[in-house]
């Protein structure tokens, strides 16, 4: 068989791989020596530079689940998987300009503390418990897909090494430096791993697209243009009843999932809380957004190219999506030059960068939000002073929980996952995790924008939303099985449509119950000092509907063939940049006259406009 794992890995590959492994371990241990206080351990002493925030955000997000799973979906479904990257950009801006200023002004360690201040202890506890469950699901999945991706390569070194041993090795290695270090250790190793991920991903994509069966990027476009419907892989917008990535769900439910992930997810937001200043945090977020835009063009396109290679070889039907990455590396990467080692180092970086981040955030959530409050209550019951619990005790508890959590997820990876699974792992993981997220997102949003959002309504929304989410597929098949709905959304309710429905329910439910409780409980019990946004002026208010109308106008011109895809994409880009330039200039006007031009050019809103303009331009370009 052409795609069998018969290519031998040479000594330069092993040399580069092990050198990378030692570098990550040493850097993590050295940086961790400086973290002595709880603020150092959990927030990096709030000294993280913008490039550390950018590298850690990207490295934390682009795990093995993405590097391996996205390539597999590019192979099995196609370029529509890019919605996972393009759609994350507006959510990143939501974090940078709406959520982050409030979180940083509160001087919190965890997002549970925000919920405690806003809604009380019950909502905070529920958030911490649900986030620990989500992190356990993600971490278990990361160990599974990492071990499965490495197994074909390691088996060439020794046939005695199996999936179970690889899971234990990955968990143990990432736990070591996370245990000794803290957030700063995680962030600096993530930066190294980000470089490895980008370099190895681009290398694999180049070698794949350069194959004669693909013919480069333009050859790939031409092959897809003349391909049959079943073989097309470059369509960004799939039908509303598509079983995996319907465009109606990608532009609604998936955006809500992005908003939760980037703005209200502890192990992502924690990096931005550790930045030196809010300006550096924002710059790090924006740079990570530009890095995110590269993923479709090296990971997903490589999967699309892989499909055409195996289609040409007559073997596309025997390749499982989750093993496409491993088979592709051994098929297209020449042996004996160390290039396989480079790509394996990138895979190792993707695995470690997600595992260490999730382990550290799980430790932070448990220690700050569960252990410390319970510890203080225990001391208060015994009439002891609880003003200050020693940092050594706080850090020690965080480390012991980290060990426990690592052992638990390792065990789950061994028991729950089948290393021979043939499903689309990344989509299955997204669907499973999405049951818990809509209620939390709505509670955060209403807590920020509506002063009458009630504490009891909040924790009820967090609790009831997952119950509805798990029940909705059954309800859709039994009680909502109208022909009209099934014609629009398909026979089975896609999880992205489910997320949208549950989010709307959570919004209505929390709003109505808040109004109900507000009538029964004196408003003096609901006092909460909301953070104020920057004052909006007339031009900002009028520019938003103008922008929405302009997007609608470009969409009409594009789909009536009045404008080419390239022209409409450029117009969208220029419109977006010009609107953000207005925001940047209004901000620069507060500076002295002689410094306004410099303040305008250095304003991060120009960078935000460019990022959002490029993203929306891609939506038009691939329409």
How is the topology of this model organized?
Blueprint: H1 11-32, H2 38-43, H3 50-61, H4 64-76, H5 83-86, H6 88-105, H7 111-119, H8 121-157, H9 163-180, H10 183-209, H11 216-226, H12 247-250, H13 253-263, H14 266-273, H15 278-292, H16 295-313, H17 324-332, H18 339-381, H19 391-416, H20 425-433, H21 437-449, H22 455-478, H23 483-489, H24 495-520, H25 538-559, H26 565-588, H27 596-601, H28 604-621
Quick structural gist:
The chain is mainly alpha-helical and 623 residues long. It has helices spanning 11-32, 38-43, 50-61, 64-76, 83-86, 88-105, 111-119, 121-157, 163-180, 183-209, 216-226, 247-250, 253-263, 266-273, 278-292, 295-313, 324-332, 339-381, 391-416, 425-433, 437-449, 455-478, 483-489, 495-520, 538-559, 565-588, 596-601, 604-621. The longest helix is centred in the middle third of the chain and has 43 residues, at 339-381.
What keywords describe this structure?
623 residues; mainly alpha; Sodium/glucose cotransporter; 28 helices; globular; disordered N terminus
What does this structure look like?
With 623 residues, the protein is mainly alpha-helical. The chain folds into three domains: 11-80 and 131-239 and 279-414, Up-down Bundle (Sodium/glucose cotransporter), CATH 1.20.1730; 434-526, no CATH class; 538-621, no CATH class. It is built from 28 helices and no strands. It has helices at residues 11-32, 38-43, 50-61, 64-76, 83-86, 88-105, 111-119, 121-157, 163-180, 183-209, 216-226, 247-250, 253-263, 266-273, 278-292, 295-313, 324-332, 339-381, 391-416, 425-433, 437-449, 455-478, 483-489, 495-520, 538-559, 565-588, 596-601, 604-621. The longest helix has 43 residues, at 339-381. The radius of gyration is 25 Å and the shape is globular. The model is unreliable at 1-6 and 521-541 (pLDDT under 50).
